[in-house]
Amino acid sequence: MTTAPGAPGAAPAAAPLDLAPAPGAVPLPRMILAQTAYELRTLLRNGEQLLLTLVIPVVLLTLFSTTSLLDLGSGRRVDFLAPGVLALAVMSTAFTGQAIGTGFERRYGVLKRLGATPLPRVGLIAAKTLTVVAVEVLQAAVISAVALALGWHPHGDPLSVLVLLLLGTAAFSGFGLLMAGTLRAEATLAAANLVYILLLAVGGVVFPLDKFPGGVRSALELLPISALADGLRDVLRDGAAFPGGPLLVLAVWAVAGLALAARFFRWE
Amino acid sequence: MTPPGNGAVEVNSLVKRYGTATAVNGLTLSAARGAVTALLGPNGAGKTTTIEICEGFRRADAGTVRVLGLDPVADARALKPRVGVMPQSGGVPGTARAGEFLRLVASFHSSPLDPDALLARLGLTEHARTPFRRMSGGQQQRLSLAVAVVGRPELVFLDEPTTGLDPQARHATWELIEELRAAGVSVVLTTHNMEEAERLADRVVIVDHGAVVADGAPAELTGAERQLRFRARPGLGLEELLSALPAGSAAKESPAGHYLIEADVRPELLATVTAWCASHGVMTEDLRIERRTLEDVFLELTGRELRS
């Protein structure tokens, strides 16, 4: 099996491996970027995830904008629906997708395995957050394009929209990670999907909350999904700046979710 | 020999309890730098718990652990780039492609091995684009080994690296471990495979009930003792044979027709046995003198009852 070095025509042997120790880690930001790119690639390849993050929101937006299946009150249908569907998109990525994905990573020992690499936990969390934000940017672009094509006329202050989206992302991420880090993976899968459907139904996403009786409506307005959908509607449809009620509700959910996740998350 | 206290891994009086069960009970071991150290023991002996404490995944209840001179938990950030870990199973996302995950881990390190060359070396090139969950158990094991060594660590922990491998994959793994050792990497592995321990390990540590029951080079553990085995017709009068042998010898027939003589095997003893057979018209087959194997030592020390 030996050939002279560089012998012409020799079959290419497996490249020799230099196993001599040469340990060292790259700087943290490079690790975070590598992990983010990896997470994004695997996520965008996953059909179920794409269904959840893009197909369902776009179908709901298009279906209810172009038909009168739902009584959306007065005003242009797409102006009511687009902010609600944007809120749904945030929930699907930051909460549902992240809870299920992280839950199974924990169950299959992936979190533990990554814990043995030079990537520290804070780096992994940063990468997951960046991944969520990147997917949300993609969702917002697609949903806005579809909504604009359907005649959407957004108003209002972009900074308020950004703050609402960030607080919403923080709140949903906190509870998604809390679920993933405490429940069994199968329980997380079931519960995250159930919460998604329930909040889609009663969170003012596509069904207006003013169809509910007064007391119920006041309670529903305290849900994070309603606060995000209402807040986005206040700005994008009605031109309000910094809607105080929804921002406060989202801030409370965000602090509670992230604090509980930090306290109770189990890595394995 | 490495002076005490300067090994790649130094574990002293380690204790770990899970509720009321004691998984590790005062275990002390030292793994020399640049050597292969094998932890051998029945299921539930505390091998994996010990390794996971060394990897920083679990905290000790008592005792001290030093890995490359550092504390696995307090100095985790400094240790992670220097230590490769192959867990007993899993640890790779089911949807991740083999090459993709290996490249990810390689990208965390400053001068990693070439992931493609490593995949080729372990016979995984064809599976570089296969999702982890669709790989066979043996392919998953080899990928896991690749992930452990891709960062060019000084020390690797391999938890049952060849369990479930076919003979070709097992030999490829053994050769890689031998090359790691030759390159100066310290290797600590657990195994149930005695052949693996005898072939690879510079030092074997036999663990049972959470403590070390024997510790030494394979040849030291099997010792100089020899034994004599032969086959013949069943039902020989062993007591009569024993009376002709030196005191302290033992003889047994198990199963029928298979004889084992445990004694101080010298030329005279061999002559006595064959002469006794000749005088009784007994033709022996497969007569052989052998050393105790590591498996004999292992079963002697840890008993024969089944473990959960």
From TrEMBL, chain A:
PROSITE patterns: ABC_TM2. It is found in: Cell membrane; Membrane. Residues 48-268 form the ABC transmembrane type-2 domain. The keyword Transmembrane helix applies. It is a multi-pass membrane protein. Keywords: Antibiotic resistance, Cell membrane, Membrane, Transmembrane, Transmembrane helix, Transport. Its main location: membrane. The chain crosses the membrane at residues 50-70, 82-104, 125-153, 159-180, 187-207, 247-265. It comes from the Bacteria. Pfam families: ABC2_membrane. Belongs to the ABC-2 integral membrane protein family. PANTHER family: NODULATION PROTEIN J. This is Transport permease protein.
Automatic annotation (TrEMBL), chain B:
InterPro entries: AAA+_ATPase, ABC_transporter-like_ATP-bd, ABC_transporter-like_CS, ABC_transporter_ATP-binding, P-loop_NTPase. Residues 9-234 form the ABC transporter domain. It is a peripheral membrane protein. GO terms for molecular function: ATP binding. Gene3D superfamilies: P-loop containing nucleotide triphosphate hydrolases. PROSITE patterns: ABC_TRANSPORTER_1, ABC_TRANSPORTER_2. The keyword Transferase does not apply. The keyword Nucleotide-binding applies. It comes from the Bacteria. Keywords: Antibiotic resistance, ATP-binding, Nucleotide-binding, Transport. It is found in: Cell membrane. This is ATP-binding cassette domain-containing protein.
